[in-house]
Amino acid sequence: MSSSEAATQQRGHSSTSQTGVNVDGNKSKSLAQKVRKREKSQPNLQGYLQKWTNLVKGFQRRWFVLDQGVLSYYLDQSEAHQQSRGSIRLKGALIEHVDACTFSVTNSSGDLNFRIKAASEAERQTWIVALELAKAGTVEVASPAKSSEGGRCRRTRVPDKPNYPLSLWSIVKNCIGKDLTKIPMPVNFNEPLSMLQRLTEDYEYSDILDVASNCEDECEQLAYMAAFTASSYATSSNRINKPFNPLLGETFECDRMDDLGWRCIAEQVSHHPPIAALHCESKNWQCWQEFTMTSKFRGKYMQVIPLGTAFVSFPKTGTRYSWRKVTTTINNIIVGKLWVDQEGEMEIVDANSPQGSKCILTYVPYSYFGREQQRSVKGVVLNRHKQAKWLIRGTWDEQIEIAPVLRTQGTPDNPSYSTGAYKVAWRRRPAPVESEKYYNLTTLACQLNEPEDGVAPTDSRHRPDQRLMEQGLWDESNQEKLRLEEKQRAVRRVREEKAKQGFKVPDYQPLWFKRENASENAMHVYNHKYWEAKTTQSWSDCPDIY
Ligand SMILES: CC(C)CCC[C@@H](C)[C@H]1CC[C@H]2[C@@H]3CC=C4C[C@@H](O)CC[C@]4(C)[C@H]3CC[C@]12C
Hints:
Blueprint: H1 3-10, H2 25-41, H3 45-57, E1 63-67, E2 70-74, H4 77-82, H5 86-95, E3 103-108, E4 111-116, H6 121-134, H7 168-172, E5 190-194, H8 195-200, H9 207-213, H10 218-231, E6 242-244, E7 251-256, E8 262-270, E9 275-282, E10 286-297, E11 302-307, E12 310-314, E13 319-323, E14 327-331, E15 339-350, E16 358-363, E17 376-382, E18 388-395, E19 399-410, E20 415-419, E21 423-427, H11 443-448, H12 464-470, H13 474-500, E22 513-516, E23 523-526, H14 530-536
Parallel strand pairs: 5-6
Antiparallel strand pairs: 1-2, 2-4, 3-4, 7-8, 8-9, 9-10, 10-11, 10-12, 11-14, 12-13, 13-15, 14-15, 15-16, 16-17, 17-18, 18-19, 19-20, 19-21, 22-23
Helix pairs in contact: 2-6, 3-6, 9-10, 12-13
The structure holds cholesterol (CLR).
Cholesterol binds next to strand 6, strand 11 and strand 14.
């Protein structure tokens, strides 16, 4: 029996059922009546209960116990390890389903307890019933919060996507062979996020990096890295809208130090070809990447081949890794429902020594091995002597499991392994309720474009066409988009004119990144000036791009 199970039983509750919570039959009947009664006076209740059920569904293997007013969340042993920063992840999961302000999370010696803080008396009542339903017991829900504790209160959704049908084919049929970023497209196919914001979503499952940062075994660390790289594709399974192509000099900051433990800054450092540079930091790790892509539109489908490299460094273990992203294919451009696939081989290599250990991951394309293999990811971690040490299996849209290799048999060309037990290194959080109405955005994604005071004037959140689009004003947005693109072209023309007249005109100089040629592949790296500039609001060097 795991310790959590023991704890559960000690308190006189039995283990979880399918929905993660055991509801005593008789009790739930009377509670159901109670709910119906309350519902009459509180039409909102059903919504809360729906949210609650969805929340619980997401945690099938976990435990919920109500004890003296505190709803405790227990992890079984294997996950306790995986979620050493569980409070954050837990909070993240909860934020997906309920207003961020209704929760505060505390981490007490191994167990994770969360208290529910209601914003109003009505909401408090609602939670009492919801919790009673989930588990019989006396519940005490804290009274309305005076001020929101820790972290600020963030929005949890964006306006619904309006329905203005337009045929994609009618727009792109004359563009076969062209690059996606060069095809002029109305916002009807967009999502209300810039590519800078979309790339920031790579850190949605940053808790995997926190776990990896504590791995003493480099090969195990690499296995977690595999899970992390796969997790960044989760959203692409149902997000088939085009992010806004950032303007040259556009930036995006995302400071989630207070609740998620990281902050990220991104800048569009080149327009032709479009290149974005990102830098994300936390106390346990640092990540940076340069992203650029080539894309080919081939008629029925379109392929995006990302160029550029992503890096991670773990100060605690002194390790650094790098990898390149795999090819994304967007299918059914002409007819049918659009769908996205990932394919290719990804090598996560030791950035300190090329002879070091590495992880080889294969994103298996659809149709290769039939339906059961859809979206599957398989891989192996090799140590510096090329011996297999960990196996990785799973899918990029659901979960990744990892297991240590105990013995290798067979021939070098056709090895077979016996492994220890597989553990879940990453599991996707369930989609927020009704997200299909708003571009299938996750809660984090919704919060990325939330207006915020004090950010740079070049921040994606100030981009007017993107804001109008989010608000559903697509005609106005399309007009603005044309204006901004024209403004960008005008700046470029002036530069070209000057060059023609023999003036020496330097290329655009990024404000927050510098081009580094030290390594064999030149790339833009962070110059560590952004957050300092933010504290003093020194934005005078920012270009006027909107
Ligand atoms: C014609 C229109 C509708 C096509 C839309 C294409 C969209 C869905 C494609 C174009 C470029 C793609 C992105 C390319 C690279 C990455 C980086 C990776 O770390 C996560 C996925 C992500 C972010 C892809 C998501 C899907 C994407 C945004």
